[in-house]
Amino acid sequence: MKYLLLSLFISISVLHGGYMDNHACSECHEKIYEEFQQSQHARTYFNDELHRKIADAANEKKYACATCHMPAADNLKDLISGKARPDPQNKTHTDAISCYFCHTIAYVKKAHQFNINIKSRQAEGYKPTLYGRLNNPDESDKHSSVQNPVYAKNACTGCHSHKLNEQNVTIFHAMSKNQNSLSCIECHMAETEGGAEKMDKRARGHHASHRFPGIHDAAFRKKGVDINVTVQNDTLEVTLTNKMDHPLIIQPARAKFLKIVIKRGYKTLWQNYHTDPSEDPQGYFAYSFKKDGEKIIIPATATEGSAHNLGARAVAHLHYKIPKLLSGDTISVALYVQLAKSDCLKVIDLKDQSLRKPQLIKEIVKHF
After folding, report:
1. CATH annotation of 218-367
2. pLDDT of 196
């Protein structure tokens, strides 16, 4: 009886205690929960080394990143102001960009420095109301379900639109002012087999994936850019076509770059850089920042900022002077991403080698 009462108390706490944790969702949405656990949305201050070290380098007292990286925190204002620090024992902290947070956004307010997710008010003592895109959603003993147009139009724009620092310098830019969430959903939440609920009472047979594949997914990242190569006399033209609805580079810690190698047999005849990919400024895509005229790495205090980028749906034609090619020569053109660019590694120490090592996005090889 004691354990039954304890179980009942926990269940009631989940329903009426003001927050439903991620694990509570797994009971009915098992597959979605498994997808979410593999996603970057499940990464937070405690298990994302790059994010944590950049956040600490920006400010050891204030955790301003919590607005988007720990949005369900029950003491969000204190985290942002520096009155509190991330707590590994607090479920509203460790749940990262939690299920409950994303599904209780009432609307998104557009603002200058960054957009603001306005949360729905939940009635005290009643089971929470969760929003989504489903028509005629199933009933649940844990929550009410309501369709809300914000999930087709603006849900992603709350965090994935833009971010300016306190000096009004752009340090993150992914979406244009008039862009909505539909294109994000089509790519990053593609329909997959299996109903949204484990029981699938309405026999929908499919649901929007909550794995949110992106740059960390080798197969997915190949889809974003096309590469074409032509040679005329001593000029190599590399055409990059950005097929994405956002710029090629959106994160200030990352770099994307071309590695071009021309070989004659086993000998390297020409390459676009020798030591560091930034030696080729036209083929190196990244943000750069300055503070009072001096180069800085962490953009939190930057007074100037710029990016060498390729805009959404844009095409770039890059030209290189090369030696005259002979029959049998080969040209390989590869686009890479480095999740923590070389400049970042000068100011933060990362143990995770996958963050340091460039990862292939796409490569083409042309034989002459």
Report:
1. 2.60.40.10
2. 85
Radius of gyration of the chain (CA): 24
Q: What is the pLDDT of residue 296?
A: 97
Give all strands (DSSP E) within the chain, no chain letters: 105-109, 116-119, 129-132, 144-147, 162-164, 170-173, 191-193, 206-208, 225-232, 235-242, 255-264, 267-271, 284-291, 294-296, 304-308, 315-321, 330-338, 359-367
For 158-183, what is each residue's pLDDT tens digit? 999 999 999 999 999 999 888 999 99
Dist CA 120 CA 76 (whole Å): 16
**Coil, helix or strand at residue 335:** strand
Note the pTM of the prediction, 2 decimals. 0.91
What is the largest distance, in Å, between two alpha-carbon atoms of the chain?
A: 86
User: How many residues appear in the chain?
Assistant: 368
**Residue 176 class from Cβ within 10 Å (0-12 exposed, 13-18 middle, 19+ buried)?**
middle
**Residue 85: how many other CB atoms lie within 10 Å:** 14
Per-residue pLDDT at 312? 96
Residue 125: what pLDDT?
85
Where are the domains positioned within the chain?
2-43+96-208, 218-367
Residue with tokens 């039954």: 4
Chain mean position to CA 151:
18
pLDDT value of residue 6 = 33
Cβ count near 78 (within 10 Å):
15
Amino acid at 351: K
Assess contact for 187 and 211: CB atoms under 8 A: no
Residues in the chain where the model's pLDDT stays below 70: 1-17
Is beta strand 255-264 parallel, antiparallel or unpaired with respect to 235-242? Answer: unpaired
Dist CA 39 CA 217 (whole Å): 10
Would you call 183 helix, strand, or coil by DSSP?
Answer: helix
DSSP notation for 92-158: HHHT-S-HHHHTTEEEEE--SSS-EEEEPPPPTTS--EEEES-SSPPP-SS-EEEE-THHHHTTTHH
pLDDT of residue 63: 97
CA dihedral 21, 23, 25, 30 (to 10 degrees): 160
